[in-house]
Amino acid sequence: MKIVSAEDTLFLNILVYGVTGSGKTHLAGTAADCEATSPVLLVDFEAGTLTIRGKAVDIVRPRSWADVQEVYDMLASGKSGYRCVVLDTLTEMQRALSLASIVGSGASAEDLEATPVPTRQDWLRTGDQMRKVIRAFRNLAYQDDPEARMHVLMLAHERSDERLGVVCPQLSGQLGVEAGAFVDVLARLTTFEETDDEGNTRLRRYLLLSEHVSEETKMRYLAKARGVQARGIFDPDMSKILSLWEGN
pLDDT at residue 142 above 80? Predict the structure, then answer.
């Protein structure tokens, strides 16, 4: 059994969720501006990387589970040179790869009628596959070889579950509610407009780091950050997140 020190836990593994347009990919791009998280590899399932144009971020777009395995093996080897990996997004990975592998992906993009309609059971079966993915990439932050460790940022869309009364990552079945158990930090990213005394408005972002219950809607917004006392971060970037994570 390997005994580790507290210093071995300083590599961040975080899952950030939010609605489309909340700035998840933009946040991921700030990893390129932080020395501790650069160079960055973005594993893109969304094909929506305009917000990080001009950033020093390498991008790979897997089209199959074999491609994902190849990316993971490269990173796990410790020889890739990357200090941060971003999965953008888990939601689209589940749709594009997990679901396709279960219901079949033989139909062409143009032959929509031939594409099978997934059932609820199909979606539930993808959960086990995604749990493996989340655990595997999370563990890149905890590899035995210190030189092989890297920061891991996973992104997901947001889901409001009225039945359970929770707002959580958009993943099938119970996985959205359980996802926080697999990572050290689960955070919700939102945007809001702020108006100054002169009537000028600007867009700001807020990263929620602790669970919050809305007095108005009574919905529970899932979030947690092990070892971090802050409730959230205004205008977050990777430098601010790492500073909190490292106890500064």
Answer: yes
